[in-house]
Amino acid sequence: MAESRLIEARSLARSFKTKGGTVEAVRGVDFEVRAGEIVGLLGPNGAGKTTTLRMLTTLLEPTSGGARVAGYDLQSQPREVRRRIGYVAQVGAAPSAGTLVGEELVTQARLQGLSKADARARLVKVAPELSLDGLERRALQELSGGQRRRFDVALGLMHTPQLVFLDEPTTGLDPQSRANLWEHIRRLRDEDGVTILLTTHYLDEADALADRLLVMDDGRIVADDTSEALKARISGDVIVLSVGDGADPGSVEAVVREAVGVRKLHRGDGGLNITVDKGAVAVAPILRALDAAAIEVEGVAVSRPTLDDVFLTLTGRSLREGEAPAPTPEPLAS
Ligand SMILES: Nc1ncnc2c1ncn2[C@@H]1O[C@H](COP(=O)(O)OP(=O)(O)OP(=O)(O)O)[C@@H](O)[C@H]1O
Ligand SMILES: [Mg+2]
């Protein structure tokens, strides 16, 4: 059923002509997003995430390829698409002085074609969903970073879209505000059935929030799967094994290789690092084989790979630089 797919991107591409030459921002990506999913578009700075979102929200013409979004063709039916989607841009636009939260939400809804009464009714529903109730009469520039970002999300929801695009919804927020916004985003899906495509370069965010990940690098989608499946497929689990001082490292390695299918093996600080497909399954045969060879085991631990390991395997680079920022103190009211 075509209805169950809210996004179908086909060879979607965009390049930019600049003084320094042509920038291939998005190099022909194919992917789908199904109704009710939260999909994370994960990638480092400059990967092409925002460009992809701007194309899917009709804000930017593709150079080639296209997409169906919310059941309509992006290029020939942009108005139908726009009516059904919400978009929260990467950085909130600077508010004009004195704009009130509630007023701005109602104004935006009216710009989308809602009547005054419908816009007000929608405000009464959306404000509590984003914990903005009680803040309707506050000026926008008085909001904290977290409140401001929740306001941005509310703005994208006022016309009851089926599909919402969030571009780095939590960048710059402290850990508590990030977790709080994650909860709101999850609730939008769970309670209102809103489908969500969000970009992030935070691995923990992708892991915690998204049902499925599109990993993007240099204009390409290099992986498309659940976080768990990506970890299992690409990195394997690592068993860290330490043995008694008397044991010869070479023969320990030989015994391990004989006992289970080893993907990778190297000597680390904590002991022998053994990469296998399924750590929990491999531990018992390894221990039995070492016991049979009379090699004394002092410790064994299994660790699951992280999304960063996945990214490193896929692209040869680390995403760690994009890890969550240290909490910054709230600025004092001036
Ligand atoms: N209007 C433009 N003109 C020229 N180049 C552009 C333009 N917009 C984007 N680019 C380039 O396209 C590439 C992809 O940019 P994009 O904003 O999509 O990345 P991103 O994945 O959203 O990165 P970030 O995580 O930093 O937001 C970058 O190399 C960027 O410099
Ligand atoms: Mg971006």
Question: What is the gist of this entry?
Answer:
With 334 residues, the chain is an alpha/beta fold.
Helices and strands in order:
Layout: E1 5-18, E2 21-34, E3 38-42, H1 49-56, E4 64-69, E5 72-73, H2 78-84, E6 85-88, H3 101-111, H4 116-129, H5 145-155, E7 163-167, H6 175-192, E8 195-200, H7 203-209, E9 212-217, E10 220-225, H8 227-235, E11 237-243, H9 249-259, E12 264-268, E13 271-276, H10 279-292, E14 297-303, H11 307-315
Parallel strand pairs: 3-8, 3-9, 6-7, 7-8
Antiparallel strand pairs: 1-2, 1-4, 4-5, 9-10, 11-13, 11-14, 12-13
Helix pairs in contact: 3-4, 5-6, 8-11, 9-10
This protein binds adenosine-5'-triphosphate and magnesium ion.
Adenosine-5'-triphosphate binds next to β1, β2 and α1.
Give your account of this protein's structure:
By secondary structure, the protein is an alpha/beta fold. The protein folds into 2 domains: 230 residues, Rossmann fold; 68 residues, 2-Layer Sandwich (Alpha-Beta Plaits). Helix content is 36%, strand content 28%. Strands 6-7-8-3-9-10 form a 6-stranded mixed β-sheet, sandwiched between helices. A 4-stranded antiparallel β-sheet has the order 2-1-4-5, with helices on one face. Strands 12-13-11-14 form a 4-stranded antiparallel β-sheet. A hairpin with a 2-residue loop joins strand 12 and strand 13. The relative contact order is 0.13. The chain binds adenosine-5'-triphosphate and magnesium ion. Adenosine-5'-triphosphate (ATP) binds next to strand 1, strand 2 and helix 1. Magnesium ion binds next to helix 1.
